């Protein structure tokens, strides 16, 4: 089961004027690709059964858009697909947007980056919406949360006197919620949740006043999750859920071997997105990398699935733990590294072998789990890398499959 709800901490000034930057609200009938424009997007909208969805409403909002009017609908449509299901939106200012497409009972939404050229989004498949049943508890601050919305969507719902709210008709994927005070002039909290199609996510936000930070909301771990365990730290960052191709590409994920490995993989190292697939057990997208191993050289059968966290190096001294879901064959090792082009300058903190099984399991890695140099000649230890981490690596060892989902950092901020 995909991770239900989860949050990351973002600090805002106590009073923040909200700007509302949407797009042109004039209704536009899509004409399909082939117009004279050199900027915009087009796509084919399909139902779950693969049938073209004609005259379906769509909206394009900046990713930091916040609604100003109360609404139970995910969007108010500005554009519509044509009779063949083609949606085209032209003359868009370059930037980061959330595209949302809605029918009566199905929805799709994704963050996209608009450039100066026309982008073909291919086929968009609508899915059943999800819901959030939420509570914002222990509101002791005068700037209490009274409204709840989702960045990039038009939905804005009232929070009742007990802190309860419900958001229906939400798209599957990672959504960033925000809470407003009564006057809607101050964002008093925001948080990231993972929403599943046709599923109600139960989420509890426990607010507290930190003693050593700015006077803004700090988020506690959610104790209502069925498939996660609350961590010690209030800061949680969902590093990767594999639901968003743009986010995946921005992190430059790769699935590869190196000159010492005898394993072989089924697709080029720079095409790791080919390993992202739908998984029924996790109710969403996961990464599944497959490789072959030589039975004669057990110490040299490994693959690397990794991403760049920071080009310059980020200080993760406050790291409490990293959690992820995994399954496969053989074993894996988890590593945080200061990785450079020169092998002699590379510093690595990694774990001992972690056996994998053919069922999804949740793993939690703490800094104390990293091997010391005296225990493993390839590990330079956590102290050597903690202030300048540049890469995250998962090593698949002596197997044929390495599958991963929902990688979460606890206790530290990431770029």
TrEMBL record:
- Which PROSITE patterns would you find in this protein's record? PROKAR_LIPOPROTEIN (PS51257)
Which keywords fit this entry according to its UniProt record? Answer: Signal
**From which residue to which does the signal peptide run?**
1-23
Q: Which SUPFAM superfamilies is this protein grouped with? A: Galactose-binding domain-like
Q: Does the keyword Signal apply?
A: yes
Superkingdom is Bacteria
Q: Which InterPro entries match?
A: Galactose-bd-like_sf
Q: Indicate yes or no for the key word Signal.
A: yes
Q: What is this protein called?
A: Carboxypeptidase regulatory-like domain-containing protein
